[in-house]
């Protein structure tokens, strides 16, 4: 009798160990291979129990260590020509996720067609005080007020150089570097000029970010006279670099611009001295739609996710129309599905970027959006992404 009492608990403990090991192996495999149901039903709900900035830091670390590798093979239909470059697909990760250039290769393995890191400021700075990122779970949205927390040009440059040197050029993902200014800088224009000169040798394109709502005075750089001076100096700086380091320069715009502001910006970039190579539409918004349900809706900062989707799509259409489709656009804002991406492409975007959907659904959202986008392109008779660009612009102008 006593022997049975001893053996039975031992058997139960052994069974629990085997079961736990099996569950652990299954979970690890599901995470690595990007099982969509596992992420949505198990993994991401657990992640949302972790404070948002801690979860963000852990996500970057996991991507850096290449722990996530969803299985998906890009098709010819998704191959995209943009800024004179060929992307395997038009889905990129927006600046703000990998702020310091730590996880570029890991993001490529997840399936992004291009990766934009930053914003990077000339000198290191801590950004705004914590807490500075808030989930709006009921709205699948995020409010952040990071404030350009950055390790600075030198650290990010050295890290990216080492990372890029480890890969053959033909295997490297297209890399964008988003440039910002230091909060206490006395010369904002000099900060951007310095970034262009510093990263021309590493980036495939550079972004002048004057639209974050979280750095005091930054959005005033979008005013006509200031923007003229800024872009003139930035393009002059690029012209001083060796030809092979003169990268395309894009301007990132805020979604809160008035129609008059937008027209003035388009007038500026039409001038030869200010002719940037593309636009990113759009950054986060300071607006708070009345439809928001979360208690965090009132937090200060930039709002991203589905509440921004229609505003950014309409803005893409307006910019495409104002520029007569002659200036390439990267569309950003509330892309959670292939249909969301397709709408932005038909509105005038040549490529798109994700951020908030990646935070809420993890790596499986990338192949999911690509599969859905490919089906929509095929169903609408488009052989390539380029064929669809701007084809529905009038539909999205309202």
TrEMBL record:
Compartments, record wording: Mitochondrion inner membrane
Any one Gene Ontology BP term: 'de novo' pyrimidine nucleobase biosynthetic process
Keywords: Flavoprotein, FMN, Membrane, Mitochondrion, Mitochondrion inner membrane, Oxidoreductase, Transit peptide, Transmembrane, Transmembrane helix
Entry EC number(s): 1.3.5.2
Protein name: Dihydroorotate dehydrogenase (quinone), mitochondrial
Key word Nucleotide-binding present: no
Cofactor(s) required for function per UniProt: FMN
Reactions listed under catalytic activity: (S)-dihydroorotate + a quinone = orotate + a quinol
Domain Dihydroorotate dehydrogenase catalytic positions: 78-377
